[in-house]
Amino acid sequence: MGNEVIEARDYDKLVSSLDIAGDIITKNYLYQLKNYRVVDIPQELKQLEISEYTRLYKFNKIVMDPNESMLDKMVTVLNAAYSSNATVVTLIKGNNNNT
């Protein structure tokens, strides 16, 4: 890598790509969802029987071992879901009595 010249349009494209990657990695786009419109469900998805593809689980309590990383465990679950082309939605509701 010497003193290579980067054309302005290549540099702009690189900066734009880095911005997009940064938003995806840091999940910054989640804070901007209100700026986007919701699209209708495609007709082919409306015809699917959702119960054949959906599993719902409710956890009333999660017990954590202070010697283990909960984040590492969640990352493992999400990586497994991603590798099998699945989606994981997590809703967490806390209260002041439990941490």
Question: TL;DR?
Answer:
The protein has 3 helices and no strands. The protein is mainly alpha-helical and 99 residues long.
Provide tags for this entry.
99 residues; mainly alpha; 37% helix; extended
3D structure, described in words:
There is one protein chain. By secondary structure, the chain is an all-alpha fold. It contains 3 helices and no strands. 37% of the residues lie in helices and 0% in strands.
Number of helices: 3
Number of domains: 1
Q: What is the typical, i.e. mean, pLDDT?
A: 81
What is the first-to-last residue Cα distance? 51 Å
Helix content: 25-40%
Strand content: under 5%
Layout: helices, strands, pairs:
Blueprint: H1 8-26, H2 43-46, H3 70-83
